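User: quick one, fold this
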Amino acid sequence: MAQSPEILAALDVGNQRVLALIAELDERAELLIRGVGIAPSAGTRCGQVVQLKPVVAAIRAAVEEAELMARLPLARVYASVAGTFVSGRMTRAAISLGSREREVTVADLEQLHEAAQRQPLPQGHVVLNVLTHTYSLDDQDGLLDPLEMVGRQLSVDAYVLACQESPVRTLEKAINEAGLEVDEFLFSPVAASLATLTPDERRLGALVIDIGYGNTTYAAYAGERLIAAGAFPMGGNKINDDLVHRFQTTAAGAEKAKREAGTMLLADVSPDETVSVPTIEGRGNHIISRLEMCKIMRLRVQETLELVAADVLRQITDDSPSTGVVLTGGGAHAEGLVALAEEVFVKRARLGELEGIADATQLLESPELPMRSPAVAAGLLAYSKRAHLSSMTPLLRSRHSRPGLFSRITRKLLPKREVGHDHV
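Assistant:
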């Protein structure tokens, strides 16, 4: 059975769990989540598929659970991508409208969008997302929608996210083998920002940090524009590894101790407090200092946040406006993380909550899946809604049809008409 155009689906393939969401657009074109599917993830590491069959099985299990709950079949999804194989930069693309002034048409915007996707990239890389900033028409700058305006030269300033082709092609293959087609991939922190940032935060500036199990990714905004993005192969798994090596415990024991007794607020921990963890061979338990465990956790999280801060400053000026930091992802649960983020960034920080998405299942509020964990999947739904509504300003996005996603993108990278590029 074909998927209704009013039914939108998101798939977030994480390093610890796969989350599938099914939503429909109501009569007011608002998103209403109808189905939620969760399955333990296997076969991925730091955002890359390292074993195909376990990933396919996890995707299929999560999607089938969501379909059963929503009582709706799925054929297409929007999917997230996260990993150090994704990088971004500012770019400008321009096209000529002719020697005489004329109105900008939809065809002109499509040509400009294709021009923005034709980036000089290293071998084995392709454009993942091109996110519109503002248009310029002759000497008019800062235009949001130049359609039907009159001029001779049309250009766009955009933030281009490129990626190594192989990891995303493999992820697409896994999704295809699970019985689904990918409408589009979106970088995870960009998706999370669509679900958690308020309009004022996007306008005045904010930094979204998504702390996952295998990666920490970020996206920085100002003036409703993406101005910086990146990823580090450090997440909850690195904390577990630190605890395993220091206390000679199991990975499962480290995860349990971290969740139940971990905190970034060292002043709240007494030197006499202890935690029982299994021995590394799993045949007994031993006692460790809770304070020492929390110090190790705090050092790793602080290092990760400082790496994000340094990378943001590398891409943008230190006087760029910002209202603060928004924390999402499973790793955002750590007690005291907000206070630590405020210390590192010297700005206000908060936990990300979903903005403007109704949940008919009420599962996203359950303790097993707290609100800040599904931010990426919810943001994918918001992105697909924007793409679905024809009244929106044309997005800089690939319009996909068979055959494969990346073969289609590769064809778009081949020269067509003369265009200009300036990289910022």
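User: anything notable?
Assistant: The longest strand covers residues 125-137.
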